[in-house]
Specification:
alpha+beta, Lipocalin-like domain-containing protein, about 45% strand, single chain, 9 strands, eight-stranded antiparallel barrel, about 160 residues, Lipocalin
């Protein structure tokens, strides 16, 4: 009987040790790692205006000047971000612009504070190659409040 309890105890310890090694990495840690691992460039952008029961979706990336299409955003581990112009510059000032970023606790919302981006963005997708974020806001027109949505797709470089 003592031998059976002893063997059960050792089996439990061995299984417990194996379970700790095989626990999945929390999604939040993965998202931070993916965000920090790359420089990111916007490759798609749409605006959606919801009013009078209908949604108007406008693809705005096509109208973005070429000098902005090669701009790059880098997220740093100290929660700063650097937005810099690519090979083509829109202005004579080519100094990188600084900002900050942070995730909420479960990393489903990414808050950006920079000249180009402000506010909380819902993280729609974050992989090794793509970052898709959405900013939802309310705007007022003709004494009515409407919902607007900005969607951005970044591609890892």
């Amino acid at each position: 009987m003592k031998k059976t309890f002893f063997l059960l105890g050792i089996s439990s310890l061995a299984l417990g040790a194996c379970q700790k090694d095989s626990e999945p990495v929390p999604r939040a840690d993965v998202r931070t790692s993916l965000l920090l691992a790359h420089h990111w460039k916007i490759t798609a952008q749409t605006l959606t205006f919801n009013h009078d029961g209908k949604a108007d979706v406008i693809e705005t990336y096509a109208g973005t000047p070429a000098c902005q299409r090669d701009d790059v955003t880098k997220f740093n581990s100290d929660k700063s971000l650097i937005y810099s112009e690519g090979a083509t510059s829109c202005s004579p000032v080519t100094e990188p612009q600084m900002g900050s970023w942070f995730f909420n606790e479960d990393q489903t919302m990414l808050t950006l504070e920079a000249q180009q981006f402000h506010g909380p963005f819902q993280v729609l997708d974050l992989t090794d190659k793509t970052l898709q974020i959405r900013h939802t806001y309310t705007y007022r027109q003709d004494n009515h409040d409407y919902a607007g949505v900005e969607d951005y797709t970044f591609t890892a470089l």
